[in-house]
């Protein structure tokens, strides 16, 4: 197996874990799957680090391990606990259609990356397509799920997609930028989960489709 | 003080003030910090203007911080409105405490967030590093989310949730675009620390991959366009801007939108100088016109005063995007002037609306009657602000709307200009209707007469003076900044 094949197959594994995040009805299970998926993401970072001799990616892997595998799921689980809501409300689309939509998005992502001819991405077109697909899957989760925490998980998926793109195409960004991006990611999840809990306290539900006070 | 130091100082002031505000809990010290810090930012900004006008762009931290004439326009807005609304906040929150809407212990949170919000906006404007730019915009959302959800109303939590969710999702798109541009520039430049700098990327614009650049611009336009409140990514805006405390609403509409806009303009310049302006212009013309037309009708039917103003912000961001879409020196000039004019007018209007909220206890325009008789100064401020928003002379917005239309006609955009003008007429009608129905007329019974206190009037009078001054003519220093900015955008 060549180096790029390893990265590309890990990337496919990433799509599978993110489908599990989207399709699990139990919020805690979704959060655990997110943690698992972040581990897959980090293994991609490490493979890229070895293959490209990109030392920056080791640092990126360690910070991601702390933030994505432990911190973010921890924050999410805290929010689940604070609201006591175990299972998400029925989503706008059923599992079958949801998976079909997801497949379409993966297809779309592969089509979108075709015109890219930059040197940095030629080897990793599959991985790049996966990162974009991942991003779109997150968007899909955000739009079709009505549970606020599930929407937040959708955002986390989008973020993992973006971070994979970063690792593939821009692993050498200066530390300052890296710190900024990772800090934002953690604070975003923290603040959103705080507001989601506030929302629960105000409305007694996590069903975002019930948020109809502000219209027009 | 050296120029580089000034850039660092202007970022340090709000950061220190935020920490102090989160720490101290006493009302008077908090208010003192509020005034001192916002005045400090304004002072440093005015010191910097001399540098920028005389010696050109200022940079610090290895080029990661950068202030040129273009970003100075937004910096000026942050500094000016940050101070004016900072003072207004004190009066406004004092009323909230008297009414029992908030507890005195909530003040530290508000002021702390206010400074933090200013810091993130300053960082957005001053960063030249495309990744820090991106991170700073996301940070503006995070810093202001609790300002939106500041009141303990159910609707505030809803507004905050929609705000933070939609803007964060939007901004994720911008990261994709940013990465694409960086990776592309890195191949050409070969130096990481230079390839992240917008100014360096601009130098190699002509060699960037056109396809990647087009995709990147679309992603960036979706991302920062969400933050700017452009259609169809605008849906969070009316919720967030109406739910926040009024001075924060003014900051969101009058200042924050410009930060997103500045980044759209930065990438508009980059894309235009790389592959020609036709591509970014077409996109902005379309989004701009859509924003103006659709927002105009929401303004017309809106009964909630603050939501009406929020839709007006979408309309005005649309006007600016429309101006950029017209392009050329005239279109871009009109768009930049409109940015300044809208900011001053919108801060004035949200402030006046804040006075209404405290005086009438409602935002429903059906229940707001006879403002001029009950609170005469606020009434006059509302008339002036509404006329300016409606595009009537001698107020600021008339000037830039006129310039936008003139630029559009000069470029031969006849049909779109007619649609644009029709939408502006709808807005004018809506504003006139508001004045006739709510500001004039007999007050509903049982409303106590008397205007609000000086702290809630003086800052708004200052804004009115600015709106009038800009309506009469553009000051020389601003003109210089604007002309240089047009050159920066068009290249050369």
Automatic annotation (TrEMBL), chain A:
Keyword line: Cell membrane, Membrane, Transmembrane, Transmembrane helix
For membrane topology, the record states:
Multi-pass membrane protein
What domain of life does the UniProt record list for this protein's source?
Bacteria
Subcellular location(s): the record lists:
Cell membrane
Q: Does the keyword Ion transport apply?
A: no
GO-annotated cellular components: plasma membrane
Q: Which Pfam families match?
A: Oxidored_q2
Instruction: Indicate the transmembrane segments per the record.
Output: 6-22, 31-51, 57-80, 92-112, 124-143, 152-173, 179-200
Recorded protein name is: Hydrogenase 4 membrane subunit
Q: What is the lineage of its organism?
A: Bacteria, Bacillati, Bacillota, Clostridia, Eubacteriales
TrEMBL record, chain B:
Span-the-membrane segments of this chain are 6-25, 32-50, 70-95, 107-125, 131-151, 163-189, 250-270, 282-301, 313-337, 374-392, 412-440, 452-474
**An annotated GO cellular component:** plasma membrane
Task: Provide the NADH:quinone oxidoreductase/Mrp antiporter transmembrane domain boundaries.
Answer: 127-421
| Localization terms from the record | Cell membrane; Membrane
Q: Which UniProt keywords apply?
A: Cell membrane, Membrane, Oxidoreductase, Transmembrane, Transmembrane helix
A Pfam family cross-referenced in the UniProt record is Proton_antipo_M
Cell membrane as a keyword? yes
Which GO molecular function entries does the Swiss-Prot or TrEMBL record give? oxidoreductase activity
Membrane topology (UniProt): Multi-pass membrane protein
Q: What is this protein called?
A: Hydrogenase 4 subunit F
User: Taxonomy-wise, where does this protein's organism fall, top ranks first?
Assistant: Bacteria, Bacillati, Bacillota, Clostridia, Eubacteriales
């Amino acid at each position: 197996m060549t180096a790029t094949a390893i990265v590309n197959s890990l990337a496919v594994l990433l799509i599978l874990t993110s489908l599990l995040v989207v399709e699990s009805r139990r919020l805690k299970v979704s959060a655990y799957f997110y943690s698992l998926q972040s581990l897959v993401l980090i293994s991609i970072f490490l493979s890229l680090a070895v293959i490209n001799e990109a030392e920056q990616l080791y640092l990126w892997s360690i910070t991601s391990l702390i933030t994505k595998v432990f911190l973010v799921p921890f924050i999410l689980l805290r929010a689940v606990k604070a609201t006591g809501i175990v299972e998400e409300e029925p989503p706008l689309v059923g599992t079958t259609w949801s998976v079909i939509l997801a497949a379409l998005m993966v297809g779309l992502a592969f089509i979108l990356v075709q015109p890219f001819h930059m040197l940095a991405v030629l080897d990793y077109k599959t991985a790049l397509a996966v990162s974009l697909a991942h991003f779109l899957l997150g968007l899909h989760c955000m739009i079709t799920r009505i549970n606020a925490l599930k929407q937040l998980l959708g955002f986390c998926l989008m973020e993992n997609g973006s971070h994979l793109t970063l690792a593939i195409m821009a692993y050498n960004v200066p530390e300052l930028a890296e710190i900024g991006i990772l800090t934002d990611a953690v604070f975003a999840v923290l603040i959103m989960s705080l507001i989601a809990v506030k929302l629960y306290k105000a409305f007694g539900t996590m069903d975002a489709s019930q948020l109809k006070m502000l219209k027009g | 003080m050296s120029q580089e130091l000034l850039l660092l100082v202007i970022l340090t002031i709000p950061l220190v003030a935020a920490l102090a505000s989160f720490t101290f809990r006493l009302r008077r010290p908090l208010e003192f910090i509020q005034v001192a810090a916002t005045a400090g930012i304004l002072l440093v900004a005015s010191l910097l203007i001399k540098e920028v006008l005389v010696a050109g762009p200022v940079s610090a931290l290895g080029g990661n911080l950068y202030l040129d004439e273009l970003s100075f326009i937004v910096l000026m807005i942050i500094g000016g409105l940050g101070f004016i609304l900072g003072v207004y906040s004190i009066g406004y929150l004092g009323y909230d405490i008297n009414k029992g809407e908030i507890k005195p212990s909530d003040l530290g949170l508000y002021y702390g967030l206010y400074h933090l919000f200013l810091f993130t906006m300053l960082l957005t404007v001053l960063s030249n590093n495309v990744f820090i730019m991106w991170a700073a915009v996301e940070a503006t959302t995070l810093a202001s989310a609790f300002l939106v959800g500041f009141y303990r109303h159910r609707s505030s939590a809803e507004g905050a949730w929609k705000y933070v969710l939609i803007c964060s999702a939007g901004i994720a798109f911008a990261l994709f675009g940013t990465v694409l541009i960086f990776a592309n520039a890195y191949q050409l430049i070969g130096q990481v620390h230079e390839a992240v700098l917008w100014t360096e990327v601009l130098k190699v614009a002509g060699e960037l991959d056109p396809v990647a650049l087009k995709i990147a611009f679309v992603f960036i336009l979706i991302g920062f366009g969400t933050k700017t409140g452009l259609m169809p990514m605008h849906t969070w805006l009316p919720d967030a801007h109406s739910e926040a405390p009024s001075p924060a609403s003014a900051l969101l509409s009058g200042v924050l939108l410009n930060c997103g806009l500045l980044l759209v303009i930065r990438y508009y310049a980059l894309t235009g100088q790389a592959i020609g302006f036709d591509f970014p212009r077409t996109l902005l013309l379309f989004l701009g016109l859509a924003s103006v037309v659709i927002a105009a009708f929401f303004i017309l039917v809106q009964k909630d005063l603050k939501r009406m103003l929020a839709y007006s912000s979408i309309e005005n961001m649309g006007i600016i995007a429309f101006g950029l879409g017209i392009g050329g020196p005239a279109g871009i000039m009109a768009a930049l002037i409109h940015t300044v004019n809208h900011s001053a007018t919108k801060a004035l209007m949200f402030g006046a609306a804040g006075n209404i909220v405290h005086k009438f206890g409602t935002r429903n325009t059906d229940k707001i009657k006879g403002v001029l008789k009950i609170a005469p100064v606020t009434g006059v401020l509302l008339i002036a602000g509404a006329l300016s928003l409606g595009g009537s002379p001698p107020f600021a917005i008339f000037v830039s709307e006129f310039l936008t239309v003139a630029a559009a006609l000069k470029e031969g955009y006849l049909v779109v200009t007619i649609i644009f003008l029709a939408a502006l007429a709808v807005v004018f009608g809506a504003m006139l209707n508001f004045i006739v129905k709510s500001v004039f007329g007999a007050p509903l019974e049982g409303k106590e007469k008397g205007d609000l206190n000086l702290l809630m009037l003086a800052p708004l009078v200052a804004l009115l003076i600015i709106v009038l001054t800009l309506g009469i003519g553009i000051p020389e220093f601003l003109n210089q900044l604007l002309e240089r900015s047009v050159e920066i955008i068009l290249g050369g």
